[in-house]
Structures are given as C-alpha cells and as structure tokens.
Design brief:
CATH superfamily of chain A: MetI-like
Structural class of chain A: mainly alpha
Mean pLDDT of chain B: 93
Strand content of chain A: under 5%
Number of domains of chain B: 2
Radius of gyration of chain A: 20 Å
Number of strands of chain A: 0
CATH class of chain A: Mainly Alpha
Number of helices of chain A: 11
Order of helices and strands of chain A: HHHHHHHHHHH
Distance between the termini of chain A: 48 Å
Low-confidence stretches of chain A: none
Low-confidence stretches of chain B: none
Strand content of chain B: 25-35%
Largest sheet of chain B: 6 strands, mixed
Structural class of chain B: alpha+beta
Number of strands of chain B: 22
Oligomer: heterodimer
Helix content of chain A: over 70%
Radius of gyration of chain B: 24 Å
CATH superfamily of the largest domain in chain B: P-loop containing nucleotide triphosphate hydrolases
Strand order of the largest sheet of chain B: 7-8-9-3-10-11
C-alpha cells in the first residue's frame, strides 16, 4: 500500500494557502482597483511579479525572509513556528506563487463592477460592509470564483519554491509534485506514474467543477439571474 | 425651504458651480451631456464630494465645507434613481425592494410594506423575477419601488427615461408623473430631453458648463428663455446676433432685418431667437420677403429652409416648421412673426 501522505500534505497546503490567498487577494484587488493610475501600476508590478518569476527565485527570496538565522525567521522560531524544512513553509510558498492569480482575476472583476450598484445601496442606507459582501462580491463572484480555483490549482501543483523552502522529507514535507520528481529521480518509474495519475485526477476534477459552475451560471443568466 | 444647494467642485478642467433651491416640487435640470447635471445630483446624494459650499435639506445640513460637515449617503435620506436603475443582480424584485426596507425590524411589517409597494406599482407578478429578466420599464418601476419604500426626504432622478425605447418613454413618463403627483416631497430630475422636461417638471433650470442658469417655471422658461443657451436647449432653431435700435425694436445684421418686439428691449441684448413654428405666411407684423430653399415632409408637419432677401450669404438658413393642415397652396413669398414670439436673449 502506497503511503498517501504526499496527497494529504498537498491538499492541506493548497487548502490553507487558498483561504489566505482568497482574502488577501480580494483585499489587495479591492484596494488596488480604486488607486490612482500610477500607484496602481507600481503595485501591480510588485504583486504580479511572482507570476512571472521562476518559482525558484521566489523560493530564494522566501529563504532570505524566513531562514532560521534571518530576523523574521528567528522571530517566528521563537514563536514556535518553523517554516524552513517544515510543511507550513509549503503554505508560505504556495501563497506567494498563487497570490497573483487571485489578485489579477479579482481585480479584473472589481474593475468591471458597476459602481452605481454600490452607490444605490448607500443611498438606501445599506452599510458599506453589507454592500461589499451582498452586492459587490455577488456581482463579481464569477471572477472571484475563477481566481480561487486557479489559485487552488496553482498551489496544489507548486513545485519550485516549495522544494527550495521545505525540501523533500518523506512523511513530513513531501507533496505530490515533489514526490513525482523524487521517485522519478530514484528510478521508481511506477511510483512516479502513480502520483502523476493522482495529479491528473485532481486537476481534472477541479476543471470539471469550474466548467459545471460556469454552465450553471450561464443557465442562471438565461433564467434572468 | 426644502433643499438649498450652493456648491463648487473642480474635476480636472471641469468646474461645477451650482446654486439653486428646490421646494416640495418637481424641479428639472436641463442640459447637454457632460454639463455637470449628474455630478450635481451625486453631490446632493453624497456620492461625490464638493470642494466647497453647503447643502441643506429641510433644515438638516448634509454638507458644509466650513463646518466640516459631510454626511455619508446612508444618513442623507436622499433617494437616487440611476439611469440604469442599478437593481442588485442575483436578487429578485421582491428582495431588491426588501433592501429598501432594511431599517424596518418587524419582519411581518416589512413583508407587508413590500407587498403594498409591489401592489402600488403593479409589479406583483414580477416579484420573483431577477433584474435580468425585466424590461426597461419594469426595471424602472422596481428600482423606484425600492427607493419609495425607503421613504427618502428628497428624490433624485438621473435621466430616468434615457435607457428606454422611444415608444415606451411617453407611456412611462405619464405613469411616473401620475405616481409622483401628490408625492409631497422635492423631486429633482436631470435630463437632456426638452420634451421630457416640459412634460414632467413644475420648474426648470438650464445647466451649461457646470453652471445653472435661469431657474423658473417650465412654461415661462420656454416662453422666455432669456439666454442663448436656454433658447438652444429648449429647442429654438433660429438664433442670430442682434442689437437694440429702439424701445421695442432690434436690428439683426445676419438677416438684414429690423424686428419689432413684444416687450421692451433691455440693454445687454446679445441675440434674438425665433422658434421654427412661429413663422406665419398670414402674419402682417415683422413680415419680410423670403426665398424657400428646401422642403422636407415629416409625418405630420412640413419643415422648410428659407433665406431672407438681403440675408448675409455666410449666415445659416432659417427653419420654418408648420402643421400639414395649414400648408398654403402656393409657396409664400413673405413670412411674418408676432412680436411676442421674438425671444430676446441676453448674455
């Protein structure tokens, strides 16, 4: 019986980082959408950089930040949080790499939002928080959902930054993607194939879910959603 | 005094300087697009923030730059009907109307008041539909219902009919007028459509480049627009520079004619205007020889283009419009205008 730890580890890393990216991405996108043009341009470059940088470069920066002898890293160590060579580091890596996907899709959705909807809510006396969650998020939900799914899929498949930050320790830090590489490297072709199939299956399920949601959305529109 | 507005706002090169009052009446602001009409409404509702000035509604100060008062839109009790109606997508008509009742905590009363509003606006059958399934007119009613249940102290209508098909407009204008007659609160509607403004409004102000010109009774404004801008926007087709030559006489160089006016001419005259339907072949006053240059038939009217004998070659032709029933058998050689129909326009 194959040890299924990498699957469990990958799923928990992807799930936790998706939740973090969901809120951080929405917050950043909402703020960025209302910034003046130049400031938005600069922020855009910084926030999108991890999307185009090689993941190993992201891993390098993460090591600079969270290395046990670095200020932030040693501070976290004192708090009892160890990111390097430990699975929570995988969450940090996945957050950094998946964040731009959420940020960009959510920002696109926020920018096409009809501001009259928010204003009409305000003149009716509805609170800004209520308007944000019931009107703005509702109107932008397709973009936000797409961003979340993309971020989740990206977090699940994260390899470069993860392998630099947490390495590969069977039963402790191994994820699906680092396991595929490790098994292949050690000539365990059958083991690598198994995990490749696992990866394929998860990706297929995710894409299927997105398609289903989109069809439902379209049908809803037809019925006047 | 229901509403007092005196505000200034700079937006890029555009400068808004709006000062007017609105009683418990239907006030219209008529102006071309981009003249600052919508911005004025947004400042009153608290969506946009003026740089300077004061806005007060029924004695409540909504905005005062000196006293640093700037109530958020939620506390202004000003209803705003958007051009695209801004119904919340993903909610039914009923849920949208319930949004306007969020302050009502008693659930039973809330449902009852929503039902009453649906009934009043005759949209009970649409209650469970979502905004995407509504026609323009239905969406307008739903949006209006959502505002009316909220019981604002002032109602702002931002080009409420411009998103509708022409044939629907008249019907909905009639409906809205009936619905809001006896509403008992101030209503301000901005529009670029003079017919719409004339039909709906008790009083009318003309807006140009961020400034509100003459505000007066709708009929008075159409009868005496006072300024060139107001004359153009109320649909006066023929406007030419003029100068005072007597107590009730002006000379129009472009047309090379002297016109007798109905009212005494004041100093500072800039131009005169003559509405296209005010020319008459049988009128003896202000009668001058003309040459008809072109004619166009419309469903119920004729439109002609003519020039006065002696008219400057560079001056544009003059428009004449008349009902088909009074079409003369022969093309007239001279046209007259009643002195009362000469509009005196000052700068």
């Amino acid at each position: 019986m194959t040890d299924l730890f990498p699957l469990w580890n990958s799923l928990r890393i992807a799930a936790i980082s998706s939740v973090i990216v969901f809120f951080a991405g929405i917050f950043a996108a909402y703020r960025a959408a209302r910034l003046p043009r130049t400031l938005k341009g600069i922020l855009d470059v910084i926030l999108t950089l991890p999307l185009v940088l090689p993941p190993t470069v992201c891993g390098y920066f993460l090591l600079l930040l969270f290395g046990t002898r670095r200020p932030l890293g040693s501070f976290l160590m004192q708090m009892g949080i160890r990111l390097v060579m430990n699975w929570p580091g995988g969450v940090a890596a996945a957050v950094v790499v998946a964040f731009p996907l959420m940020y960009r899709t959510a920002r696109g959705a926020f920018e096409s939002f009809d501001e009259n909807l928010a204003w009409s809510g305000q003149t009716l006396g509805l609170s800004n928080t209520w308007i944000f969650w019931h009107v703005r998020m509702r109107a932008c939900r397709q973009g936000i959902l797409a961003g979340t799914v993309l971020a989740f899929a990206r977090a699940l498949g994260e390899y470069g930054a993860t392998s630099m930050l947490i390495g590969y320790t069977p039963g402790r830090t191994a994820t699906v993607s680092t396991t595929v590489y490790q098994l292949w490297r050690t000539n365990d072709g059958r083991g690598a194939f198994f995990w490749v199939m696992v990866n394929l299956a998860i990706s297929a399920v995710v894409l299927l879910a997105v398609n289903l949601l989109e069809t439902r959305e379209r049908q809803g529109k037809k019925n006047g959603a | 005094m229901a509403l007092e507005v005196n505000i200034e706002k700079q937006a890029g090169t555009f400068r808004l300087q709006a000062a007017f009052t609105c009683e418990k009446e239907f006030l219209g602001i008529l102006g071309a697009s981009g003249c600052g009409k919508s911005m004025t409404l947004k400042c009153i509702a608290g969506i946009e923030r003026p740089d300077r000035g004061r806005i007060a509604l029924d004695g409540r100060v909504l905005f005062d730059s000196e006293k640093k008062i700037d109530l958020p839109p939620q506390e202004r009790r000003v209803g705003y009907l958007f051009q695209n109606y801004a119904l919340f997508p993903g909610m039914t008509v009923r849920q949208n109307i319930l949004c306007g009742l969020h302050a009502e905590k008693d659930k039973k009363k809330k449902e009852q008041r929503a039902d009453e509003m649906l009934e009043l606006l005759q949209i009970r059958d649409l209650a469970s539909l979502r905004p995407g399934a509504l026609s323009g007119g239905q969406a307008q009613r739903a949006a209006l219902g959502r505002i009316l249940v909220n019981e604002p102290d002032l109602l702002l209508l931002d080009e409420p009919f411009s998103a509708l098909d022409t044939h629907l407009r008249l019907k909905l204008q009639m409906e809205l007028k009936n619905l809001l007659s006896g509403y008992g609160k101030g209503i301000i509607m901005v529009t670029h459509d003079r017919d719409e403004a004339f039909r709906m409004c008790d009083r009318l102000g003309v807006m140009e480049d961020g400034r509100i010109l003459t505000v007066k009774g709708t009929k008075e404004l159409f009868a005496d627009p006072e300024t060139r801008t107001a004359a153009v926007i109320t649909g006066c087709k023929n406007i030419a520079k003029a100068r005072k030559t007597g107590e009730r006489e002006v000379f129009v160089p472009e047309w090379n004619i002297r016109l007798t006016t109905g009212t005494p001419v004041r100093d500072g005259l800039e131009a005169v205007g003559i509405r296209a339907h005010h020319f008459c072949p049988d009128e003896t006053e202000n009668r001058f020889p003309v040459r008809i240059q072109g004619e166009m038939e419309e469903p119920f009217e004729w439109v002609s283009e003519f020039r006065y004998d002696g008219q400057e070659p560079s001056a544009p032709a003059v428009w004449w419009r008349y009902a088909k029933e009074i079409r003369p058998p022969e093309i007239p050689e001279a046209l007259g205008v009643k002195p009362d129909n000469i509009l005196l326009l000052y700068s």
